[in-house]
Amino acid sequence: MLLLRHCRCLTRVGLLKTQRVQLLQGVALPVAVCSSHRGHKSGQYQRSHGPNWRHALAGLLAGTGAVLAYGLHHSQTEQAATTIVQPIAPASSLPIYTQDEVTKHRSVEEGVWVTYKGSVYDITEFVSMHPGGDKILLAAGGALEPFWALYAVHSQDHVLEILSEYKVGELSAEDRRMQQSVKSTDPYSTDPERHPALRINSLKPFNAEPPAEILSDNYITPSAIFFKRNHLPVPQVDPKSYRLQVEGVPGGAPLSLSLEELKTCFPKHTVTATLQCAGNRRSEMNKVKQVKGLNWGIAAISNATWSGARLKDVLLAAGYMPEVVRQTSHVQFEGLDSDVTGTTYGASIPLNKAVSEEGDVLLAYQMNGEDLPADHGYPVRVVVPGTVGARNVKWLGKIIVSEEESSSHWQQNDYKGFSPATDWDTVDFKSAPAIQELPIQSAITQPAEGAVVERSAEEVTVKGYAWSGGGREVVRVDVSLDGGRTWQVAQLQSSEKGQVPAPSPPPGRAWAWKLWELTAPLPPAAQELEIVCKAVDNSYNMQPDSVAPIWNLRGVLSNAWHRVKVTVKEDEEEQKLL
Amino acid sequence: MLLLRHCRCLTRVGLLKTQRVQLLQGVALPVAVCSSHRGHKSGQYQRSHGPNWRHALAGLLAGTGAVLAYGLHHSQTEQAATTIVQPIAPASSLPIYTQDEVTKHRSVEEGVWVTYKGSVYDITEFVSMHPGGDKILLAAGGALEPFWALYAVHSQDHVLEILSEYKVGELSAEDRRMQQSVKSTDPYSTDPERHPALRINSLKPFNAEPPAEILSDNYITPSAIFFKRNHLPVPQVDPKSYRLQVEGVPGGAPLSLSLEELKTCFPKHTVTATLQCAGNRRSEMNKVKQVKGLNWGIAAISNATWSGARLKDVLLAAGYMPEVVRQTSHVQFEGLDSDVTGTTYGASIPLNKAVSEEGDVLLAYQMNGEDLPADHGYPVRVVVPGTVGARNVKWLGKIIVSEEESSSHWQQNDYKGFSPATDWDTVDFKSAPAIQELPIQSAITQPAEGAVVERSAEEVTVKGYAWSGGGREVVRVDVSLDGGRTWQVAQLQSSEKGQVPAPSPPPGRAWAWKLWELTAPLPPAAQELEIVCKAVDNSYNMQPDSVAPIWNLRGVLSNAWHRVKVTVKEDEEEQKLL
């Protein structure tokens, strides 16, 4: 963001349109060559800066992709921010603003203000020129730092130079201090800082999802915006004293592993896997009839690269012998997160998934190449690829092989699917199996519900994600612009944009989502588009058409076709003709 | 059938209604105690035979189930037919009829005639009294023998006694000979005899399905009515000279096995597995828009018990070593059935399915406890549980481990799914994966489309089957009587009715279907019911709501909700009141 500052005059002479076309291919490209000063005439600008601009854009296109993911690159980003970005000297002539005053400026109508290292900027005029589009508004009323950490391309000298010209004041000293975390005796007081882009569904325990329009920008979701689904306060775990207990292996002996032993005694295995909350898209069920649960949008799903020891290897070390253990056994997991009574989070998976050579179940200590973040289970979590998020137990304390499933509330009396006919008076949780593998899923991340598409654009680009549980690979996504009457096939993407696609996974081990995109001509007569997507996996399972027939009292497994309505705005000239 | 002969007079005094209620619980129960002669008054009958009738019915209910399956019991049946059933002596006074004349009598309006061992019977009057209901009409115009073989309870002396009283003539000598198989130089001339109940979609090659109302009578489908899906003429294989070739195992050596070696050198493994044609329910897609392919109804699916050697064991014997073979390899199968150019039927499955301990892939030489029938691949076929029928190659000649899928037409250019937008001008068969695991499926077998339900019955019983591919267990079937607005949960059945249910299969190995049933009150005001079913598997995949959005040019993978419309007939008295 903040990259096309001095180019705004170009909107009037059409060059920006050309830029936008090129930018579309690169997603949120920084075009950071506009170093001239305010007051230049557009013609002058075009002459003196046109070639440089093209040169710089070409360089960026040839690079490693426009958007560098926070999770993979934030070390570099932090470093860059420290070394390149110098605090802008306070100008005593500018007014002091409180955070409250800044927060009031969150729209183009009210003005769009942001803070950066204690200074306040009014970037209202810049919003329409931002190469990343409306995403700039996610930072409105708040600090830029976390967004620039996410989109590392901003950490360049000239971006700061541009920003400096929008400065309108200083943040009050008190609010600068307030930007640090506040600690208290609240059990949640030690919860980590979170990225401000996250849309919070519940603060305590913390449950939040990224804005949908950001989600599909990265094939690997940056850890900072990876959806968070905590059931309890985040435990503080000392990696030095941490022990992982393994119990109940028939014929084996209890095992206790330090973090170091887990890391060094077992081969490190890396898997890219999508996790999804069972309640993803619950808000659509709530529209049919109220359900119990967090009102998730479409982004309680994210994709990351996980590294750790294979659960299978650890169970073998604990004495697991296939011929001794019943096929119908389970592997239970206990978290170190607990409520006031000391009850810990718990869940279990079938033994055959845990010990399968092809199950890829990890005791992960890294996410996106770094130590697990606190919100994602530091120091060790289970990653059960293809399986509902709830079984991917974080802050893992204990593993128990048992003939029984976990006795925890979350295994026995939650995370199960029921008929639309079942209500809280009639529900028998014993009658349904615990959710393990999830069904085929997809959703539209762009455009957003209610967006406006210009008729002059002549076409519309639709983006989204698609994933299926159980290692079933997404093989096709169909997109409709007319509510499901006619369909077009979207382009699938299984790596970061611009990178060489990863080879197809072995059968049954497609753990990662696919992003997808379709650019299609605008239907000539339509004033409104009802955009719909539906995905197909390689077992040819398809999403159900509508929400009501799959409605269930807990609002889980919401995987009907996703629908987004957008308006087509006729051009003024055409409108006059009409 | 033909069991309540002399009870027809009772319809007028209401006893039959009582019988029907009891019979409903036992499915097609023979009530074979009516040995009195025509002309008895109903009152007399009730007095003299009532107690006996109750006694016999109780005995049958206490037996091993009312309907004995042909596939499991036809040896006994054949024997019974030979020893018990004596040819009925031709009465010279009765006329001679040709088969053509008999064939004209296939409805209650035209008269219902059947033949049995050369005699002709007019059973029109008996139809309404048949405990098995309308199923008796399946035999109309043809021979009784194959149906009695299927429903072995008919093979009792008193049934013959009843039948004899409906005799109206003799079948011509020529037609008696014609009932033997006709042989010719036609490549299909050596195809085996088939059960006349089958609904034929194509005669050459032979493709046929059982009537839906029969399908769900047996948890294990009798082999004779198991759906037949041949691509080519049935080959004549001499079991003595038969060899199974195994090739292409990296690091191994070619292997050639006799039938005897296959049976004796490898452990015999038994699996109950449902097979389904990719084109099952294609007729519903044809109603949306014409597709290419056989117009299957809802019964191109059946369930059987298969025994044979594990493919995994045979590959190990051929030198298979997991560490030597690429994970992405395939196992190709070649059939011994071929066209005039010598091209054989072929297909392949992913190697990981073939060698998985939990894949249960068989080289089967038995079906339902007996040698494979000719139509089902005698002497050896592949059974790939959870996988589309087309990969379960029959008359197996060769197994080839390869880095490539089978190059056969049926693997490369058929049995693939496409978007509704894809037509024969735009289709690129390379763009879609070969169908392997099938998606969740269910259908209603009773009542039939257009059936009439009496208001006085006060309730309606709906029956059907449900199955999912990939070893995913069906966990719920929802049934709606109002087109999908409200739902009720059906009762699932995973063994023959009246038998102890089989224990739950290990996770991922639920290869067999579940039958289901729901008896629900008739909605008070409804004059028509739109009955709908949808199933859910343990990955919580659900069937799509409607056919059009999953329509594809080959008409495969037709698994939308199944819908059946029935009429509610008001009672005469109530109608008068209205």
UniProtKB/TrEMBL annotation, chains A, B:
Its EC number is 1.8.3.1. Its cofactor is Mo-molybdopterin; heme b. It is found in: Mitochondrion intermembrane space. InterPro entries: Cyt_B5-like_heme/steroid-bd, Cyt_B5-like_heme/steroid_sf, Cyt_B5_heme-BS, Ig_E-set, MoCF_OxRdtse_dimer, Mopterin_OxRdtase_euk, OxRdtase_Mopterin-bd_dom, OxRdtase_Mopterin-bd_sf. Pfam families: Cyt-b5, Mo-co_dimer, Oxidored_molyb. The keyword Metal-binding applies. It catalyses: sulfite + O2 + H2O = sulfate + H2O2. Residues 94-172 form the Cytochrome b5 heme-binding domain. GO terms for cellular component: mitochondrial intermembrane space. Pathway: Sulfur metabolism; Energy metabolism; sulfur metabolism. The keyword Metal-binding applies. Homodimer. This is Sulfite oxidase, mitochondrial. It comes from Salmo salar. The gene is suox.
